[in-house]
Amino acid sequence: METDFMEELLLVEAEMQEVQEQIKLLLDRQEVLYKKQSELKALLEERKESGASANNNVTTEVADWSATFEWDAQADDTRFNIFGISSYRANQREIINAVMSGRDVLVIMAAGGGKSLCYQLPALLRDGISLIVSPLLSLIQDQVMGLMALGIPAYMLTSTTSKDIEKTIYKALEKGDGDLKMLYVTPEKISKSKRFMSKLEKCHNNGRLALISIDEAHCCSQWGHDFRPDYKNLGILKIQFPHVPVIALTATATYKVQTDLMEMLHIANCVKFVRTVNRPNLFYKVHEKSSIGKMVIHQIAQYIRSSYHNNESGIVYCFSRKECEQVAMELREHGISAEYYHADMDVIAREKVHLRWSNSKLQVIVGTVAFGMGINKPDVRFVIHHSLSKSMETYYQESGRAGRDGLPSECILYYKPSDVPRQSSMVFYEKSGLQNLYDIVRYCQSKQICRRAAIFRHFGEPLQDCNGMCDNCAYGKELKEFEVTGHAKAIVTLLRDMQDHEQRTTMLQLVDKLKTKKKELGVSSNPSPDLKKEQLEQLVIQLLLDRVLKEEFQHTAYATNAYVTLGPLWKQTLQGNKPVRLEICTGQRQNDDVSEKDCKLDRSSSVLEAKLDKLRKEISSSDGGIFPHAVLSTQHISLLSIHKPTSISQMVEVIGKVKAEKYGSKIAELIRNYVEAGQTSDEPNNAEPNDADKFSENERITKRPRKNEAHVIIQSSDDEND
Ligand SMILES: Nc1ncnc2c1ncn2[C@@H]1O[C@H](COP(=O)(O)OP(=O)(O)OP(=O)(O)O)[C@@H](O)[C@H]1O
Ligand SMILES: [Mg+2]
């Protein structure tokens, strides 16, 4: 009798333990849902207030700021003749007007949306000096070089600044001597240099501090993805200079980060411009990743060679430093010009690689997450993830480095289920680390749901049309849904038996065991199909996402191992209450290299464009090392090849005064030679543009067709002139 009670007691205690675990999981989940709920509520409130519910732009107060202002003509002239920008993109003009009116402004605009112009143009229009805080030296150098090339007196005050230049800058701040319009600093300057702050104060006291701009402002918030402690101290600027307008800019900020920023920077009454996270020019795709490493590289190399044979720039992101080196080497063996970039390299070696890539002397950078915020190259045509990112946020950021110039570009993630435990063992200790990872895994596992929709959902935005710009929307995949309840039960049973014997298993070991034990477990008598190894892995991941299984982690002397164990919902699966289904690609779509060709983005370039591209590279290397895109943007090249100006006055009409005066004679000579040689037969577009086209970016995206549909050309959706 006593032993019966003892046994029952043990069972009850075991079950209580299990209930405790379930409660913990549910509480965790509840916390996440609460967070999401409050963000969504806040978003709804905000929309109600602004009455902008039907609009794609989640923008407040736009109406007032798109009116006419006294500086309109001067702003237009500066935009075109100095920056060489033919028309404003969405929200730019409104933001500039708000800043010019002396208001504090918070700008959330997707990567490549054109945030820099929003503070650089007012900095030129307003009297005095504008201070720009930016997180990275490389970003600052890039910006300052670009501005100097346009003849704008921009300087930086960083650890690399010479004593002479420092003196000049301090004189300009203190006494208003010399020519200084924009001063770039890192946040450390504000928090650590008393000398600098006292000079800035003098500048302010003389009424010459025109504007404070805080770029990559998400670095202020611990909730953001790139928190920088020195950014936290930037609130001092508004306290010390309360009447100087502050503009804070970032590409991504959830509602929580936005409120955090406003509080930290003391800009509670700012005008907020929030643009959609949508990047209509980016094509998102998940590619099944072979378990054979060499095969993956072979596929990537073949893809780059066939799709980007004109040396168009790209990035390949890898999981580890070792993998970076390996992938770069193997890509080189396949004839791709590729170099690796990671945090273990010394700064000079890293900078050298970055520079060669920025100058288009190197086609591909193979990087870890260390290759991050400083990337300012507008014409990156593809971003490939050789391995899974750790969250949707990280993936959005990294893939978003493609197509900053607004032209069609591709973001491809190579996914195999066995990459999940590699990532999970790195992120499990981070706050919501596993939750975030599982979100991106869901994105990868899905074979039908629009990839873009997953991004909107993640950032709490209403859905917008994908226009066939993701693999799931573009291709009619040949999919079959199999009932795999038998397999799921077999997995659960196996794990339960192992746990009873206090054994642990990794996902790969589990799948191997399953393959060999399948007969014993009676799966073969089940009507379920015979699943391949990769499909079993896919099922294990699906069961993880559905909480039937869970991951546990254990440290060894060399690594952290991820083990698969029973999750809170294993009993339901064992009871077979809910059938388990698995989507499997059956048709040719598995190997989409074929369809890839059918659905190629329209990026044919003419002979003249190629010549102009070569010329901009020559000019850039002889003109103080500025980047080719700072000489002429890709849009400039396409406009020049359409209009073919052969005199400086015609050139001014196309690329603005400063660029025409600086580079016009060389460009005109090239075009004249080209026209005289009669090389116009291969032009993709010989038609005269109409006036509406004339000075707009006029970017085109080929809408990806569903299988068997004709190509449809659409304009680059909402980006311009709306
Ligand atoms: N109105 C415009 N028309 C055409 N090109 C533009 C316009 N505004 C900006 N650009 C170009 O778009 C590219 C990206 O601009 P910018 O660097 O300002 O992006 P960003 O929003 O700061 O992106 P990130 O978040 O990546 O820093 C640059 O090459 C810039 O010259
Ligand atoms: Mg920027």
Order of strands, main sheet, comes to 3-4-2-5-6-1-7
Shape: globular
Fraction of helical residues: 40-55%
Please state roughly what percent of the residues sit in beta strands, choosing from under 5%, 5-15%, 15-25%, 25-35%, 35-45% or over 45%.
5-15%
| Chain-averaged pLDDT | 84
Backbone CA Rg: 28 Å
Extract low-pLDDT stretches. Answer: 52-62, 588-603, 681-722
- Decide which structural class fits the backbone: alpha/beta
Descriptive account of the structure:
The chain has 722 residues and is α/β, with parallel strands linked by helices. The strands form five sheets. It has a seven-stranded parallel sheet, with helices on both faces. Strands 8-13-12-9-11-10 form a six-stranded parallel sheet. Strands 14-17 form a two-stranded antiparallel ribbon. Helix 15 (392-399) links the parallel strand 12 and strand 13 (409-415). It binds adenosine-5'-triphosphate and magnesium ion. It catalyses: ATP + H2O = ADP + phosphate + H(+); Couples ATP hydrolysis with the unwinding of duplex DNA by translocating in the 3'-5' direction. Keywords: ATP-binding, DNA-binding, Helicase, Hydrolase, Isomerase, Metal-binding, Nucleotide-binding, Nucleus. Its cofactor is Mg(2+).
